[in-house]
Known about the structure:
CATH architecture of the largest domain: 3-Layer(aba) Sandwich
Order of helices and strands: HHEEHEHEHEEEHEHHEHEHEH
Distance between the termini: 7 Å
Oligomer: single chain
Strand order of the largest sheet: 8-7-9-10-11
Largest sheet: 5 strands, parallel
Mean pLDDT: 83
CATH class of the largest domain: Alpha Beta
Number of strands: 11
Structural class: alpha/beta
Amino acid sequence: MDDRLRxxxxxxxxxxxxxxxxxxxxxxxxxxxxxxxCLDHHRVLRQGLPEVVYGEGKTPEQVVAxxxxxxxxxxxxxxxxxxxETYRSCxxxxxxxxxxxxxxxxxxxxxxxxxxxxxxxxxxxxxxACAGTSDLPVAEEASLVAExxxxxxxxxxxxxxxxxxxxxxxxxxLRQARVVIAVAGMxxxxxxxIAGLVQCPxxxxxxxxxxxxxxxxxxxLLAMLNSCASGVTVVNIxxxxxxxxxxxxxxxxxxxxxREQTS
Length: 263
């Protein structure tokens, strides 16, 4: 979107586009009202990250209509929390009008599409450390979103504190990270352990994994909020997407705006 606006300004300046045509091309900028949704086409310019579609609770028809308009505007498209039943109902329609197909990951329930190949441009790598296999859906959501935004991602799977040697075996990966996303349920101890071993920011993601007294992730959330380690930031329960967005902004060098990752 930002590249197209730059080109439009150049075309207006050299007279190849008339003011009227330029105005008409921006008639639905910065937002577009679809009746059931108001799309924020300006977000990528303001924040460096495009608007992402939260799929849960939307009908297949609504998802398809939103995706179609985002694609027409040249945005990379991410649909989070898109359950398999909804995807089976609309998956073919999501790819309509473009030769490049999207990709659906059933584990993370994430659908992604981009018109151009994405090259990692972050300042370093983002490590996504997953405490247990049951935490993988949230961890993979964080990993795929971070990759879609142009980051190099290193996945550490099943490195929870019940077997601390598994984490220590991956210290080389942890030490090279620009930011670590630590995903854990149960007692939520993993982020505190990692934050005591690395010198980069740690983003803690509590998951709803655990037995009854975990209260659907509240126990892990409170443990992470009360971490004794410095530099731990906590997002909401099961919010791998939010962690990836924060990590993306941390991972960008000051001289390279994050929006360049998505153009």
